[in-house]
């Protein structure tokens, strides 16, 4: 029996799930107009509202719009329904850096390239007052050309969140 395609907002055809976290699931999708592959992050509004994280979602959107860099996953658009928030983002075909590291030691030239791209992306973010605060191999993706892409700005902070004590203050929810 053939599965009926799920069409989101008359714009995207949803495909397989790529991953999930506490508040969101990420799916591979296809833009119906351009046929371009994208990643769609689907956030459950009810869960986010229940724990008071709507401001954090708004901050993540603002930050992703602010940091346009070749080594940062790009946000294409944000959409919403009554129960969900959708981020249409650049689809990074190669997966997490974590998977490459888990298979064994990286070759020195690849490790050097990833490190240089990571430092470039972090420097760019910091120059715009954005602090990621959750850099780890699971949030570093590698595209089909072997380029690193920083993803998941959900815990990031802006320079304006810095208080008199010099620390960044944002709401963190622990489970």
From TrEMBL:
Q: Which domain of life is it from?
A: Eukaryota
Catalytic activity from the UniProt record: L-threonyl-[protein] + ATP = O-phospho-L-threonyl-[protein] + ADP + H(+); L-seryl-[protein] + ATP = O-phospho-L-seryl-[protein] + ADP + H(+)
Q: Which residues form a coiled coil?
A: none
Q: Which residues bind ATP?
A: 41
Q: Which residues form the Protein kinase domain?
A: 12-175
**What Gene3D superfamilies does the record point to?**
Transferase(Phosphotransferase) domain 1 (1.10.510.10)
Give the record's keywords alphabetically. Answer: ATP-binding, Kinase, Manganese, Nucleotide-binding, Serine/threonine-protein kinase, Transferase
| Alphabetical list of SUPFAM superfamilies matching this protein | Protein kinase-like (PK-like)
Q: Which Pfam families match?
A: Pkinase (PF00069)
| TM annotation in the entry | none
**Molecular function via GO:** ATP binding; protein serine/threonine kinase activity
Entry's Gene Ontology BP terms: signal transduction
Q: What is its EC number?
A: 2.7.11.1
Q: What cofactor is this protein dependent on?
A: Mn(2+)
Family to which this protein belongs: Belongs to the protein kinase superfamily. CAMK Ser/Thr protein kinase family. SNF1 subfamily.
Q: What does this protein do?
A: CIPK serine-threonine protein kinases interact with CBL proteins. Binding of a CBL protein to the regulatory NAF domain of CIPK protein lead to the activation of the kinase in a calcium-dependent manner.
Name of the molecule in the record? non-specific serine/threonine protein kinase
Organism source for this protein?
Lolium multiflorum
Task: Tell me the lineage of the source organism.
Answer: Eukaryota, Viridiplantae, Streptophyta, Embryophyta, Tracheophyta
């Amino acid at each position: 029996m053939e599965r009926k395609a799920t069409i989101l907002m008359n714009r995207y055809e949803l495909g397989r799930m790529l991953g999930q976290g506490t508040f969101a699931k990420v799916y591979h999708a296809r833009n119906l107009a351009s046929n371009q592959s994208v990643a769609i992050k689907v956030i459950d509004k009810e869960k986010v509202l229940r724990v008071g994280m709507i401001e954090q979602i708004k901050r993540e959107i603002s930050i992703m719009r602010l940091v346009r860099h070749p080594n940062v996953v790009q946000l294409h658009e944000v959409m919403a329904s009554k129960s969900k928030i959708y981020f249409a983002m650049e689809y990074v075909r190669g997966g997490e850096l974590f998977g490459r590291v888990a298979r064994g030691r990286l070759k020195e030239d690849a490790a050097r390239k990833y490190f240089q791209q990571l430092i470039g992306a972090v420097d760019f973010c910091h120059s715009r007052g954005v602090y990621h605060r959750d850099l780890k191999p699971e949030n570093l993706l590698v595209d089909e050309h072997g380029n690193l892409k920083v993803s998941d700005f959900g815990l990031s902070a802006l320079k304006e969140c810095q208080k008199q004590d010099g620390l960044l203050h944002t709401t963190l929810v622990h489970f």
